[in-house]
């Protein structure tokens, strides 16, 4: 995982095989395929990280956090609060 490409280059959006998603820079465990769900955005979507320290979050607004790898600081995207597949669940 890293900054995803917007113009059709994202290969993990529709990838639903069992496994673990790790940082592309340092292999730090980030997300499990069990927390992945289909979403209309052009990027992969997850409901939770593997561990609390898998990522570092920086508040950008009341509904969005910038998400970085918890180990090396690689930019991963955002967490959107209350935008998950169920009420009260965030989307990474």
UniProtKB/TrEMBL annotation:
Pfam families: SelR. It comes from the Eukaryota. Its cofactor is Zn(2+). It is found in: Cytoplasm, Cytoskeleton; Nucleus. InterPro entries: Met_Sox_Rdtase_MsrB_dom (IPR002579), MsrB_Met_sulfoxide_reductase (IPR052150), Mss4-like_sf (IPR011057). Residues 1-92 form the MsrB domain. It catalyses: [thioredoxin]-disulfide + L-methionine + H2O = L-methionine (R)-S-oxide + [thioredoxin]-dithiol; L-methionyl-[protein] + [thioredoxin]-disulfide + H2O = L-methionyl-(R)-S-oxide-[protein] + [thioredoxin]-dithiol. One of its GO terms (biological process) is innate immune response. Its main location: cytoplasm. GO terms for molecular function: L-methionine-(R)-S-oxide reductase activity; metal ion binding; peptide-methionine (R)-S-oxide reductase activity. Gene3D superfamilies: Peptide methionine sulfoxide reductase (2.170.150.20). Methionine-sulfoxide reductase that specifically reduces methionine (R)-sulfoxide back to methionine. While in many cases, methionine oxidation is the result of random oxidation following oxidative stress, methionine oxidation is also a post-translational modification that takes place on specific residue. Acts as a regulator of actin assembly by reducing methionine (R)-sulfoxide mediated by MICALs (MICAL1, MICAL2 or MICAL3) on actin, thereby promoting filament repolymerization. Plays a role in innate immunity by reducing oxidized actin, leading to actin repolymerization in macrophages. Belongs to the MsrB Met sulfoxide reductase family. This is Methionine sulfoxide reductase B1b. It comes from Sphaeramia orbicularis (orbiculate cardinalfish).
């Amino acid at each position: 995982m890293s900054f995803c490409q917007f113009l059709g280059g994202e290969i993990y959006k529709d990838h639903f095989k069992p496994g673990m998603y790790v940082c592309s820079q340092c292999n730090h465990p980030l997300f499990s395929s069990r927390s992945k769900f289909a979403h209309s955005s052009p990027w992969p979507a997850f409901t939770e990280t593997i561990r609390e320290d898998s990522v570092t979050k920086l508040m950008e607004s009341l509904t969005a956090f910038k998400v970085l790898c918890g180990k090396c600081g690689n930019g991963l995207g955002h967490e959107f609060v209350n935008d998950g597949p169920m009420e009260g669940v965030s989307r990474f």
